[in-house]
Amino acid sequence: MIDELSRLLAVNGYLPHGYCLSWSPLLVLTYVVSDVLIFLSYSSMPLALAYFARQRKDFPYRWLLWMFAAFILACGTTHLMGAIVLWLPLYGLDALLKAATAFVSVMTAIALWPLIPHALNLPSPKQLRQINEELQGEIAERKYVEEALRLAKQAAEENLQEERTIRAAIVEFSEDAIVGKTLDGTITSWNRAAESMFGYRSEEIMGKSVLVLIPPENWAEEERLLDAIRQGEAIKLYETERVRKDGGRIAVSVTISPIRDKDGRIVGVSKIARDVTERKRAEEEIRRLNADLEQRVLARTAELTTANYELDSFSYAVSHDLRAPLRAMCGFSHALIEDYGSQLQGEAKVYLDQIDIAGRKMGDLIDALLVLSRSTRGELRHDAVNLSALSERLLAELKQSAPERQIALQVETGLLAYGDVRMVEMIMHNLLDNAWKYTAHAAAPSIRVYAEEQDGLRRFCVADNGAGFDMAHANRLFQPFQRLHRQEEFPGIGIGLATVQRIIQRHGGTIEARAEPDKGAAFYFTLSAVPANKET
Amino acid sequence: MDRKVILLVEDNPQDEMLTLRALHRANLANRVDVVRDGRQALDYLFRKGQYAEREGPDLPTVVLLDIGLPRLSGLEVLEQLRADIRTALLPVVILTSSDEDQDRLKSYKNGANSFVRKPLDFSEFAETVARLGVYWLATNDPPPER
Q: CA-CA distance, A248 to A498, in Å (whole number)?
């Protein structure tokens, strides 16, 4: 094999290639020059590729560059051999080199084709430039954003600082004592209000146990509260007592909340305490005053109840006991007349009649007193009363009692009053009775019932054109047993208007009179201090 | 035939005289028994104490009962009469000076058959008493005997 190879590489047996060219100088020269130039050129190319490969280490197909370099170099060598074999017939070596060149070329070609699609995907310089520009844009934008972020962060930090300052000021100058402490009760912060409320300066109290502020009898309670705080509960507006440095006790309302770290663990306690000593004192004062007032109301009510009871008993006694002797006086004077009338002489009968008359009069007075007394007793009912219908009925009754009287009656329709229907009837009965009575001697008597507006209040009016009275005596009008007319002119006992006024006052209303002698009288009344509805 | 009896319960002697006079004048003198307080009234009606041996029918035809009585008031007497089966249906007329609503109300609530106010006027009084006598002795049918 070695022999075969050495034979192949030997120069013996073959003619130099120049013979094939008949040593034509021009041909030989062209061959030699061309082959040498090709060889030199081909030799320089791998150098260029190697340089490129060295400079562009990021080039993705470096192995391809090496293959190109090898096959170009191999091609160059075959051309050099082409020049050499003109004179030295080293055809064996030439053939080996050609074969090697062929192998390298084929390998390169095979390797090249599959690369083409990848190579096509490689960005072109133009694309790269474009991408580059885009990248530059992005970078600029990112820089801008980063700057903005930096400024924002700076501003936020400044704000945070400012907020911290404000918060610190709020805590420091709060009217409420704000105290921070650890979970075992060691004081960790202390504001000015705490200083003035409890009397300890910040440096005196920091690091001390909060128990110095708490009355010993409340220590168990404090422990219970701390337990609740450890469980994450908050205690709002809890009212308790605290001890000042000078030993004085103050009433406080405290709000206790857990302080958590950023992971939510409870690491401390904040206590906000408000001095409620003054408020407590005021509350106590109000309670005391209320109790006192209640006591006085009770006492007054008892007094009034007693007075009412006595009045009731009095009325009852009057009703029962004052009548019986009167009945005896009247009864026996009658019995005397009936049984012994024939034996009575002179004015005896007249005198007995006077006893009877006086007895009746006394009876009427007792009845009137009872009516007056009842008008101020008993529960007041609240009814809607049709005053028009009531007046018409009462006037009809009066007309029936004296059918011969010609009198003009005028009652406004739709008059509605609110009050105790029995008492309203008593009012109208008295007022209409009076009007009827005092128009007895009038030339063209008339009675009017109507309503009118006065200072936003609707008031009812009963007016007549009868005897009237002198307003100079008006102050006696509503007093019991006071009369403005003589008995023989107009009989009466003077209790009606007194009763009317008491009923109206019980309803919260007022009554007044306008009159003129021989022109008539008008009585105006309201049943309540509240303006009545217009529709009524 | 038993006689009809009116029981007058009256503590005021003058009222008693006037009432009796009116009943006599109306020819209702059948028989009027008079007791002067609430305790006596119950003793009379239940034949107790001083009235244990009294003569006459078991019960009167009607009781004229005043309210303002010594010891037991008329209203209390009425209450006890209504609570006892023997007198639960006995006609009782309250005859009183009072015209108080509360007296009238209590009387009817306690089961009075009638409420009459003694008029002040003598003629009226005499007439009222006479009418009462006539009504309860002659007009009204008493409850059946038990």
A: 65
Domain boundaries, chain B: 6-137
Q: Which residues of B touch A358 (CB under 8 A)?
A: none
- Are B127 and B118 in contact by the 8 Å Cβ rule? The answer is no
Query: Residue A304: which residues within 8 A CB-CB, separation 6 or more?
Result: none
Cβ <8 Å between B14 and A328:
yes
Report in angstroms the alpha-carbon separations of B56 from B1, B5, B32, B52.
Answer: 11, 8, 11, 12
| pLDDT surpassing 90 at residue A373 | no
Would an 8 Å CB–CB cutoff place B58 in contact with chain A? no
As a whole-number percent, the residues of chain A with pLDDT over 70 amount to: 96
CB A204 within 8 A of CB A301: no
Express each pLDDT in A8-64 by its tens digit. Answer: 666 667 788 888 888 888 888 888 899 899 999 988 888 888 888 888 877 777 788
Is residue A534 pLDDT above 90, yes or no?
A: no
Of B12, B100, B123, the CB nearest to A324: B12
B34 interface with A at CB cutoff 8 Å: no
Residue of B75, B120, B121 to mutate for A, most A C-beta atoms under 10 A: B120
Sign of CA dihedral A11, A14, A17, A22: positive
Query: A319 and B67 in contact by Cβ < 8 A?
Result: no
Length of chain B: 146
pLDDT of residue A341: 84
- Tell me the angle at which helices A2-9 and A91-121 cross, rounded to the nearest 10 degrees: 90
DSSP state of A234: -
A-chain residues near B99 (CB < 8 A)? 319, 370
* Secondary structure (3-state) at B38: helix
Kindly report the pTM of this predicted structure: 0.48
Q: Which residues of A touch B (CB under 8 A)?
A: 315-316, 319-321, 323-328, 330-335, 356, 359-360, 363, 370
Task: Place domain B6-137 in its CATH homologous superfamily.
Answer: Response regulator (3.40.50.2300)
- Mean pLDDT of the residues in chain A: 86
Q: What is the mean pLDDT of residues B75-90?
A: 93
Burial of B64: CB neighbours in 10 Å, binned 0-12, 13-18, 19+ = buried
Interface predicted TM-score of the whole assembly (ipTM), two decimals: 0.76
State the Cα–Cα distance between residues A71 and A77, nearest whole angstrom.
10
Instruction: Decide: residue A294, CB within 10 A, 0-12 exposed, 13-18 middle, 19+ buried.
Output: exposed
Give the residue, B52 or A378, on which the prediction is more confident: B52
Buried b / exposed e across A167-200, counting CB within 10 Å, b at 16+?
eeeebeeeebbbbbbeeebebebbbbbbbebbbb
Give the pLDDT of residue A153: 92
pLDDT(A187) > 50: yes
Per-residue pLDDT, A11: 62
Query: B120 and A360 in contact by Cβ < 8 A?
Result: yes
What is the predicted pLDDT for the residue at A356? Answer: 85
Average pLDDT value for chain B: 88
Distance from C-alpha of A477 to C-alpha of A511, rounded to nearest angstrom = 11
C-alpha distances out from residue A152 to A141, A142, A145, A147, Å: 16, 15, 10, 8
